[in-house]
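ERR on first pass: missing label on line 2. Operator R.T. fixed the label and resubmitted. Corrected input:
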Amino acid sequence: MLSASVEVRVRYEETDKMGIVYHANYFTWFEIARIELLDAMGCPYLSLEEDGLYLPVLSCKADFRSPAHFDDRLRVVVKIEDSPLVRIRAGYEVFREEQLLATGETTHAFLSAEGKVVRPPEKFLEKAGEFEKRGQAPVVE
Amino acid sequence: MLSASVEVRVRYEETDKMGIVYHANYFTWFEIARIELLDAMGCPYLSLEEDGLYLPVLSCKADFRSPAHFDDRLRVVVKIEDSPLVRIRAGYEVFREEQLLATGETTHAFLSAEGKVVRPPEKFLEKAGEFEKRGQAPVVE
Amino acid sequence: MLSASVEVRVRYEETDKMGIVYHANYFTWFEIARIELLDAMGCPYLSLEEDGLYLPVLSCKADFRSPAHFDDRLRVVVKIEDSPLVRIRAGYEVFREEQLLATGETTHAFLSAEGKVVRPPEKFLEKAGEFEKRGQAPVVE
Amino acid sequence: MLSASVEVRVRYEETDKMGIVYHANYFTWFEIARIELLDAMGCPYLSLEEDGLYLPVLSCKADFRSPAHFDDRLRVVVKIEDSPLVRIRAGYEVFREEQLLATGETTHAFLSAEGKVVRPPEKFLEKAGEFEKRGQAPVVE
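pass 2 clean. output:
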């Protein structure tokens, strides 16, 4: 399993007149967590795009249990549980301290610059493999 | 069934560096279609809030088949197929001309100003009933 | 003078917890009005980009007199008063019925795909000239 | 002078099809810097709202020198140079490492819950005074 987490502080801009975070913004937070996971793997998203690969969102969903509010400091956890094949599925959890506010999922595929679905690049698979091993037996730093 | 549709023209702000619409923006378009449906029913969302009722999003999802681009003129169709009980489920389709670009779903519940889940108000149920009848036997205008 | 106007209906997503429209969203409305002006001139922005030209924002400002609210139907007026030289300046007014809610200004320059500032293309200047003449002596349609 | 700075990492969602950050997003970053300054002063914005005070944006502007890109780590510096009277003016600078990408300004006034302009509250003025003194003769911690 690949996993990472990131801190997000709720921006005023992300709230709506109901006084809570507008639901679509959770998907931007999921994006931030994915970017962090790719960084942690040693395979930053920007370097994938520099190699002519894109990782668009094919589907996404979220379930909201409790609203997030302005200035909340949230923790967004991302997990990729299955081996990344052509379709990659990432799960998300949004916490305020110990409280689970929302869960979500996105699916992705690697796309070439020409817009064709391609297999995950070797670099990505290799880094994913190394990252998983590190996760199981963490290196002392 | 309750149904409405709305035209959306893609804003530059809604695109991202992939050259396509950022996925989270579809949920804003779904919102626009919901607002239009409530208008068409004769039960504008603003009037619900004035009555102290809110209709937050409990869950949402979208599946993306083909990307939308800047300046596209899209048609967003919303349908509520089930009788609205405590939980209301709305389905969405996004078209560019005849091409289906994306589908989606949101679920909602009526919330009181105190944040308690309540049954749909009489006004809403009545207007929904009338709207469905009009849909089945459209009035000649 | 080049001028156009566009209707905007305030989206729930554009509001914030103060119950009013978040200020940054006015700049997106200004964009919509600019796009409309280029359309009305017969020189759509998309066609400029297809010719390898971009019209980025060099500076922008807005003054807010009265807040806009969810579901308001606003009229956004854009005017280019000076002859478009290398730097193009557009002014904006946002109205709710007769009430002026906000004014603004953006400046732009044409940029080549290589990121160099270039003079406005002939097509643009020609269309601007024709549009101004039409404005002064409107064609009966 | 009151001053603070904050790190911002550019989100994919903040880019547009020109491959750069959409200009309106700088105003959200300015907001983040303001919030940070109020925190640093010991007068968090949320506590002001809890006291029934709002600090809406009366005007805003930005000048863009060089574009920001996805994944850039930016430093946003905010400064309030004048003594805060009824109208409060904040200046901003956005840096990528040593390069100044953009400057900006916002003006604000304190508003009561009834929407009336009021003088800055004592708490705010006191904290501002203490913060300025600390700035001139920093306390060893």
